[in-house]
Amino acid sequence: MVEQTVSREFVVGMAKGLHLRPADMLAREARRWRSRVEVIANSQRVDGKSILDVMTLAVEAGARVAIEVTGPDAGQALDAIGGLFERNFDEMGGAGEPADGEPSAADTA
Q1: Would residue 60 count as lying in a domain?
Q2: Could you report the per-residue pLDDT of 58-75, keeping only the tens digit for each?
Q3: 9 has which bridge partners?
Q4: Phi-psi bin for 31: left (phi > 0), alpha (psi -120 to 50), beta?
Q5: Measured at the alpha carbon of residue 54, what is the angle toward residues 14 and 27, in degrees to the nearest 5?
Q6: CA neighbor of 27 nearest in space, from 52, 12, 2, 48
């Protein structure tokens, strides 16, 4: 079995940062794969399969996060996790814009 390590850096685009819901989505996606998934931010490296570990990073909007995956399905796992970041974990809006359930300026005017 060949162990492969791949990594990619992402910018957190959600207005509230990597809060509970996206951290849960990331951990759930990471657990689907046999490879080890690590999240690196704020000079810390944590287990991407643990929602609690991901939450301890306290990643804010606009911060850079590196995902490093090692194992037999590393490339596929990184692509799947990268897709979450690329679509802002399915949240409406990006950094500085209202997320789901938050009123926009137009809604409150």
Answers
A1: yes
A2: 999 999 999 999 999 999
A3: 66
A4: alpha
A5: 85
A6: 48
Give the number of other CB atoms < 10 A from CB of residue 85. Answer: 20
Range of the domain at 23: 4-91
Say which DSSP state 97 is in: S
In a domain? residue 97: no
In a domain, 105, yes or no: no
Asked if the structure places residue 106 within a domain, the reply is no
Report the predicted TM-score, pTM, of the whole model to 2 decimal places: 0.82
Q: Of residues 12, 19, 77, 91, which has the active-site annotation?
A: 19
| Active-site residue flag, 19 | yes
Query: What CATH number is attached to the domain comprising 39?
Result: 3.30.1340.10
What's the domain count of the chain?
A: 1
**Band of pLDDT at residue 91, cut at 50, 70 and 90:** confident
Listed residue (108, 101, 109, 106) closest to 14, CA to CA: 101
Residue length, the chain? 109
